TrEMBL record:
Entries under SUPFAM superfamilies matching the protein: Composite domain of metallo-dependent hydrolases, Metallo-dependent hydrolases
InterPro entries, per database record: Amidohydro-rel, Metal-dep_hydrolase_composite, Metal_Hydrolase, Metallo-dep_Hydrolase, PhnM
GO BP field: organic phosphonate catabolic process
Pfam families (UniProt xref): Amidohydro_1 (PF01979)
Keyword terms, alphabetized: Hydrolase
UniProt GO MF annotations: hydrolase activity, acting on carbon-nitrogen (but not peptide) bonds
Source species, domain of life: Bacteria
EC number(s) given by UniProt: 3.6.1.63
Keyword Hydrolase: yes
The Amidohydrolase-related domain, residue ranges: 229-395
Protein name: Alpha-D-ribose 1-methylphosphonate 5-triphosphate diphosphatase
């Protein structure tokens, strides 16, 4: 199976074979924005030059921004495609391809598809379905066949408050290329859902539980965490080492939880819920990731710390689209406004910083030798709009 390039401009269709030059662009470099051109051969950046000259055969970007493609570390978007309505299991290959196309169109050129491992099978109305191994196998097969537009990698979200975690983790091996493993604990009354009323609104709204069923869910979850939590956490940490994956914490709330995450080897903190926790991450050398929807909406839907507050305090390193792929582009501009017009710094939060946090040294920057993952952005009615996306020099959107 090969990628159909019929959506690309005719001038771009030959980019893969003859090279690509994006000229007369405002290039988002690691430390500044510069008018210039970027040249690509065999999927790599081979030259970055200053000036507005448009060589023959080059794409004239007419002053549009050109920056490195976005690197997405945590997105629930694939799950929405797989289950577009409660209890509706959409054909997985079709879901993966639709997800891939959506991300490419949003400027994302590398994604760590977040797959939950660890479910509760005996939860009555709140019972869950195992899916991670099967979906991962299909992602990897589509990648081998060349059917995917962008670079897909795996992110296992290890739920310690579950029944199946260790069994599911045992189904993955080093050849699966798992790049991230995050430790999640959604036991009611702590971390993301310290506020049980917020949890009530979320669970009852999503799963349609009665109040009686919700209270039973809380009691069962807490009892399960007491029974298996410590063993599951240790097993997940061991699995991350076995798989060669970066270990991430999830929803750390206070300094003690951050210290515990650091002791386990966490290098990335997903969505710390308080400023105290984010500050402690900085002290422990752990990169802080927050959600773009939090930044765009002006706050957390769970009542936790606002991403903008952490950005203004210098405590934000990485932005994730979380559940809205297009939010990454919007978040780069929102951060630039917060940081007094420093678009280079803001863009790094969705490109170089997540690449570095995931251990990928070959992407996220416009510089000679880097992967030619590029995004051209114009402006329509005052809003940034993707006008072209290239993954390893190949036009994908």
């Amino acid at each position: 199976m090969t990628l159909d390039l019929s959506f690309a401009d005719a001038a771009d269709a030959a980019d893969v074979t003859r090279g690509l030059v994006l000229a007369n662009a405002r290039l988002v470099l690691p430390d500044r924005v510069m008018r210039g051109s970027v040249a690509v051969e065999r999927g790599r950046i081979v030259a970055v030059e200053e000036g507005d000259r448009v060589p023959g055969g080059a794409v004239d970007c007419r002053g549009d921004l050109v920056g490195p493609g976005f690197v997405e570390l945590h997105t629930d978007n694939l799950e929405w495609h797989i289950e577009p309505r409660p209890r509706v299991d959409w054909p997985h290959a079709a879901a993966i391809l639709a997800h891939d196309a959506e991300l490419a169109g949003a400027g994302i050129t590398t994604v760590f598809d977040a797959l939950r491992v660890g479910v509760v099978l005996s939860g009555g109305p709140a019972a869950e379905t195992r899916y991670a191994r099967g979906v991962a196998t299909e992602i990897l097969a589509l990648r081998r066949e060349g059917a995917l537009r962008i670079d897909h990698r795996l992110h296992l979200r290890a739920e310690v408050c579950s029944e199946t975690l260790l069994e599911e983790l045992s189904e993955f091996g080093p050849n699966d290329g798992v790049g991230l493993l995050s430790l999640m604990d959604h036991t009611p009354g702590q971390r993301q859902f310290r506020d049980v009323d917020k949890l009530r609104a979320y669970v009852i709204g999503k799963q349609g539980l009665s109040e009686e069923e919700f209270q039973a869910h809380i009691q069962a979850s807490r009892a399960l965490r007491d029974r298996v939590g410590a063993r599951h956490e240790a097993g997940a940490v061991q699995a991350a080492r076995r798989l060669g994956a970066v270990l991430a914490s999830h929803d750390d709330t206070d300094e003690a939880q951050v210290a515990a995450s650091a002791a386990l080897g966490a290098r990335l903190a997903e969505f710390p819920t308080t400023r105290e926790a984010a500050s402690a991450c900085r002290d422990h050398g752990i990169a802080v990731m927050m959600g773009a929807p939090n930044l765009i909406r002006g706050g957390s839907h769970s009542g936790n710390v606002a991403a903008a507050e952490l950005a203004e305090a210098g405590l934000l390193d990485v932005v994730s689209s979380d559940y809205v792929p297009s939010a990454l582009l919007a978040s780069a501009f929102a951060l630039a406004r917060l940081w007094h017009g420093d678009l280079a710094r803001a863009w790094a939060c969705v490109s170089a910083a997540p690449a570095r946090a995931a251990g990928l040294q070959d992407r996220g920057r416009i510089e000679v030798g880097a992967r030619a993952d590029l995004l051209r952005v114009g402006e329509v009615a005052g809003h940034p709009v993707p006008r072209g996306v290239w993954c390893e020099g190949e036009r994908v959107a």
